């Protein structure tokens, strides 16, 4: 019997989501609100586009952007989607259509935003510790919204470039608030020992110095304490320190009009855990509302006159994407069973890099006893795994499996290691599916070398 499973369900806590019709035995019961998104069966996608392939749901992305905006509706704000999470042009376009802005960290990301039109650039915040003169010039000429400056040396370089081009630059200092946030150490950014931002204790003096440059307008304060943060508390601590600083800076005579709270709101990578019914207790909407409340309380001290900039990445796109891959081989080494897929760590590096958990769902699960397996890729690294000692229904060569919650830091962090072309990407829009990035070919990889 065909039952429905919505592998993107968690992002909306949807029930009865008829996303994928599997001849399997899962049922998607993950919560409260119901949404019918009729999407194509994954089998069809695998046949049409081959594997591995990233599959995204446009509905889910749009729903997340709207959910985020709803939570902040009482506060003047601009959601600036963090492009690094997923920088595929069709995804950016979708988010642009929701009137969002963009958080970028390189000239390359700015070029991507510019493909949406010049207007999109006016809603860009430019973060990053290592901006080059060329990147600053492009951003100045593109008339971006604001530069989040991360060092005194960068202020000087930006002031020089702005003077040369005779273009006024709005700047925020990204302050380092020395706030601990529980997450993987590689993606924690808010402690003094991290490379990010300017020590908040020095910030007033740095603002005073910045204000002397004719072509710089110090009008914002920004902070970003890390990524995949599941509790509201550290965001509250960071924003309170920022608000205190804004009060002081205003007393110092600066016209601070922007507070940028950064990104970092986490998701539940276990939300679809379990096999007898996908879904979990994570309520994304409640989570973002709690986050909004935590940010808005300290901001009240500023009595309006401030636009809150937000830079969510993962929260908007992670759960709207999955990586569809086919089992190549199943083999035993001693007591271990390895399920070897055609996707590898080069396609999705999060498990290898952070020991990150991603749910893995067989598309046609076999009934019967589950087995403890390692799901691994074909790359020549022992770290090339998607799951270790995971209890899964029996898998055989040829089976399709979906690696869930892969919409953020999936393809954008992929590489060509082992000379593996990157996967295709497909967007599901209502009843239609669209190839938004073709699979790379070996020619794509070697052409730059043949050209020299
Ligand atoms: C400055 C900045 N803003 C926004 C983000 C987006 O973070 P997330 O995807 O966790 O929301 C990042 C990544 O951590 C970042 O470094
Ligand atoms: N790449 C990380 C997030 C990094 C955020 C960068 N500021 C992840 O996959 O979780």
Structural features:
binds lysine, 13 helices, De-COase2_CS, 9-stranded mixed sheet, pyridoxal phosphate, decarboxylase, Lyase, Ornithine Decarboxylase, Chain A, domain 1, 452 residues, amino-acid biosynthesis, 8-stranded parallel barrel, alpha/beta, binds pyridoxal-5'-phosphate
Summarize the structure.
This is Diaminopimelate decarboxylase. The chain is of the alpha/beta class and 452 residues long.
Commentary on this structure:
The protein is of the alpha/beta class. It folds into 2 domains: 39-56 and 319-449, Lyase, Ornithine Decarboxylase, Chain A, domain 1 (Beta Barrel); 72-312, Alanine racemase (TIM Barrel), CATH 3.20.20. Helices cover 28% and strands 23% of the residues. It is built from 13 helices and 20 strands. It has helices at residues 42-49, 58-71, 89-96, 107-114, 118-121, 133-141, 152-165, 203-211, 233-251, 284-299, 314-317, 350-354, 442-450; strands at 3-5, 20-22, 53-57, 77-82, 101-104, 124-126, 146-149, 169-176, 198-199, 216-222, 258-260, 307-310, 321-333, 336-341, 360-362, 371-376, 385-392, 400-403, 424-429, 432-437. The strands form 3 sheets. Strands 3, 13, 14, 15, 16, 17, 18, 19 and 20 form a 9-stranded mixed beta sheet that branches. Helix 6 (133-141) links the parallel strand 6 (124-126) and strand 7 (146-149). Helix 6 crosses helix 7 (152-165) and helix 9 packs parallel to helix 10 (284-299). The longest helix is centred in the middle third of the chain and has 19 residues, at 233-251. The radius of gyration is 23 Å and the shape is globular. The protein starts with a strand and ends with a helix. Residues 1-5, 9-39 and 275-280 have low confidence and may be disordered. Lysine binds at residues 84, 187, 227-228, 350, 409, 413.
């Amino acid at each position: 019997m065909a039952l429905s499973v919505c592998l993107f369900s968690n992002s909306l806590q949807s029930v009865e989501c008829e996303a994928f019709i599997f001849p399997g035995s899962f049922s998607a019961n993950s919560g409260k609100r119901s949404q019918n998104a009729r999407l194509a069966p994954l089998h069809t996608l695998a046949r049409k586009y081959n594997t591995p392939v990233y599959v995204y749901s446009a509905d889910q992305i749009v729903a997340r952007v709207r959910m985020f905006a709803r939570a902040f509706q009482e506060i003047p704000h601009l959601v600036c989607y963090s492009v690094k999470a997923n920088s595929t042009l069709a995804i950016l376009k979708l988010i642009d259509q929701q009137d969002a802005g963009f958080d970028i960290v390189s000239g390359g990301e700015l070029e991507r935003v510019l493909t949406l039109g010049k207007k999109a650039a006016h809603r860009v915040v430019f973060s990053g510790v290592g901006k080059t003169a060329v990147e600053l010039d492009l951003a100045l000429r593109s008339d971006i919204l604001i530069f989040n400056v991360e060092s005194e040396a960068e202020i000087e370089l930006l002031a020089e470039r702005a003077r040369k081009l005779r273009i006024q630059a709005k700047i925020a200092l990204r302050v380092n608030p020395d706030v601990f946030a529980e997450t993987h150490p590689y993606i924690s950014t808010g402690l003094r020992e991290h490379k990010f931002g300017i020590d908040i204790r020095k910030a007033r003096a740095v603002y005073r110095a910045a204000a002397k440059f004719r072509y710089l307008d110090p009008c914002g304060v920004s902070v970003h304490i890390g990524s995949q943060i599941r509790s509201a508390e550290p965001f509250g601590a960071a924003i309170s320190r920022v608000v205190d600083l804004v009060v002081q800076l205003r007393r110092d005579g600066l016209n601070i009009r922007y507070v940028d709270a950064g990104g970092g709101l986490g998701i539940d990578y276990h939300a679809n855990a379990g096999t007898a019914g996908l879904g979990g207790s994570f309520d994304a909407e409640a989570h973002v509302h709690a986050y909004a409340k935590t940010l808005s309380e300290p901001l009240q001290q500023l009595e309006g006159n401030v636009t809150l900039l937000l830079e969510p990445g993962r929260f908007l796109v992670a759960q709207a994407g999955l990586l569809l891959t086919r089992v190549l081989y199943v083999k035993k080494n001693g007591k271990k069973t390895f399920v070897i897929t055609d996707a590898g760590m080069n396609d999705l590096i999060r498990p290898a890099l952070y020991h990150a958990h991603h749910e893995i769902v067989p598309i046609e699960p076999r009934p019967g006893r589950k087995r403890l397996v390692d799901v691994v890729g074909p790359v020549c690294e022992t770290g090339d795994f998607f799951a270790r000692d995971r209890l899964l229904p029996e898998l055989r060569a040829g089976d399709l499996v979906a690696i869930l919650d892969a919409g953020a830091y999936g393809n954008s962090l992929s590489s060509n290691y082992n000379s593996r072309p990157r996967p295709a990407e497909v967007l599901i829009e209502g009843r239609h599916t669209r190839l938004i990035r073709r699979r790379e070919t070996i020619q794509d990889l070697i052409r730059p070398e043949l050209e020299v």
